[in-house]
Amino acid sequence: MIRFHKKAIDVVREASDGATTGLICTPYYSERGLKLLDPFFDATDEVEFWTRFSPLDWRAGVADMAALSRRIQSVVGREKRFVLWVSDDLHAKIYRFSDDKVIIGSANLTWPGMTSNVEVVCELTESEAADLSSFLSNFRDRLTLMETGVFTAYVDVVADAISKPFDGLVEENEEMNAAIDLAEEELRKALRETAHDATGIPPAELEEFIDYCRRENTEVCQEIIARHEGKHNLQGHVKHCFYGCARFLSEFQEFITEIAATPGDSLYDFASSSVRTSWRNFLRDHANEIDKERGFSFHTLRVYVPATLGGKCTGGGGGSPTLKRVLPVVARMLQSL
Question: Domains, the chain, ranges and CATH?
């Protein structure tokens, strides 16, 4: 029988008391939340931590990667094991400290999540907890193992960029873009390689697209070229938006005429529900694919794009300004082939 609790920290602390191993699975965490489990971190012989790996989450204040780095260094410094698994699609919350002490629910490892939010907090009975083991093994297969030394080194490198105040869109902050790109280098290693499908439209390359922009020579195209050439460190945004849009329109050729009709000096607004829904589903269906030859991955594209358009960017407009510039120009280029 599952037992429900009103406050997460009460049951999590009770389960972790005296434990020397454990699994903590939470997408979001804070210094105050981690501090609640410092007695466990100070005593553990081995801990697995499953979470997201996103500088945008850190920037938005929903995950304190510097605080996690300090716990990693503390555990490793005692010559104990800290195993880190990551996925930017993670949303589960699981706290497991033995075969018969497992808590699942909605509570993140933050102060509000553990103490004051209205959360679902369920403690599994011994038999239910035992049945969870095979599920956790399958769950782990969907995550990426990250070396703790890589994580702590990454935090050291980008901490100043994350904490530095800036105005305007996240997309236009060069230091944040560099932090995102550095994070993506690690996460791309777990993606599966894919090739362009045979769709009846010849695969276009980025330089062909930039040449087309020069010929069209609208203000939108001039901005795309400027970003491609290094403005705000947005070369990666242009590349990933281009290859993503080209693949999308190759699979959904019925949208080319509609999207291409966008005025030359206007951004595509995704007002069409059929286009917006198809685009979101398209990103979801290809989320784990990478084209190593072109240095393009849907995973990175989704990091640049806000949740409203099927992406994962928080705390700003994401790559939508670049995406909304690139998509109609790609459509017109494909029409011209």
Answer: 3-158 (3.30.870.10), 170-336 (no CATH)
Q: What are phi and psi of 290, to 5 degrees?
A: -140, 140
Q: Where are the alpha helices (DSSP H) in the chain?
A: 8-16, 31-36, 38-43, 55-60, 65-77, 111-115, 126-140, 148-163, 174-187, 206-216, 219-228, 235-251, 256-260, 273-285, 298-304, 320-336
Residue whose entry in the numeric block shows the structure tokens 């994070």? 183
| Predicted local confidence at residue 191, as pLDDT | 64
CA distance 79 to 299: 34
Residue ranges in the chain whose pLDDT is less than 50 = 1, 195, 198-200, 317-318
Average pLDDT in the chain: 88
What pLDDT, on the 0 to 100 scale, is given for residue 317?
A: 45
Q: Which of 162, 28, 137 is nearest to 92 (CA)?
A: 28
What's at 51, amino acid-wise?
Answer: T
Q: What's residue 188's pLDDT?
A: 67
| SS3 assignment, position 145 | strand
Q: CA of 177: how far to CAs of 125, 146, 187, in Å? A: 46, 21, 15
CA gap 186, 158 in Å, rounded: 14
